[in-house]
Amino acid sequence: MYSFTIKDLENLSGIKAHTIRIWEQRYSFLKPNRTDTNIRFYTGEELKKILNVALLNKYGFKISHIDRMNEAEMKERILGLNQLEAQQERIVNSLIQNMVDLDMENFEATLNNFISVRGIEKTVLQIIFPFLEKIGILWMTNHIIPAQEHLVSNIIRQKLVAGIENIHNRVRINKTVLLYLPEGEHHELGLLFMNYLLKNRGVTTIYLGCSVPFNDVEYVMKMKNPDYLYTHLTTVGARFNFEKFVGTVIKRCAGTPVIVSGQLTNTYAKKIHPPVHFKKSFSEVMEFVSGL
Length: 292
Hints:
By secondary structure, the chain is α/β, with parallel strands linked by helices. It has two domains: 6-163, Multidrug-efflux Transporter Regulator, Chain: A, Domain 2 (Orthogonal Bundle); 170-290, Cobalamin-binding domain (Rossmann fold, 3-Layer(aba) Sandwich), CATH 3.40.50.280. The protein is 57% helix and 13% strand. It is built from 13 helices and seven strands. The chain has helices at 6-13, 17-26, 44-58, 63-67, 71-79, 84-101, 104-118, 120-141, 146-165, 189-200, 214-224, 242-252, 282-290, and strands at 33-34, 40-41, 173-182, 203-212, 228-232, 258-261, 276-279. Strands 4-3-5-6-7 form a five-stranded parallel β-sheet, sandwiched between helices. The longest helix is centred in the middle third of the chain and has 22 residues, at 120-141. The radius of gyration is 21 Å and the shape is globular.
């Protein structure tokens, strides 16, 4: 049985660990196990329960009231939430629960339903990105089984690729962006979505994909002379040296702006210099796309 820490529950539910501990003392819906060293750990069922409790509490239900609900009542109340944000959070939580249960049929059906109503871009912005933000920390800390990561990643990747293939934009922007991930970085979803955003707005893209040696990137740059080099860093191998990566880019891409986004940009403490530019939030990424 796979287990989660109280920090995992905090990251996934948005409820502070201190509050979770208080809830455990006062109410009955969470009953964590403990290791031999008295550290709490939680099952997948408890993770699903805290996601539901957090959602109901956020949208007006008192914890004491939620504690008295059985599973059917809780599900009914969640389905009855009519705020748009609540509905989106419910779907994201459902995807997390499907991932924990390895229920890929329902995972894909949930995405397909949303795509059919809202389209791929809104699905990514409103559902997939919040989902990836929540579970991204688990990927970085190895708190989910690799099979879970591979299964959900492949389904999301299929949706993004289908979205890219269906782009029919007659408006063209006279800009070219070369997209790649450095060696050791295999989390491709953020980069694929950037490829979608850029192509959908008429930008020419050259997509190299994941774990590309920099010599290959440099060769393509010299051949194609792109206006920008773009990479998205989610998590990389143990041998990846962020400072060395930045130094290499500065040295070898002096004439080409290099845009770096992703979770790892928030871990880099040193000052960066042109041609490197960090985009540490999605709003900053969208500002870059809109400014092309």
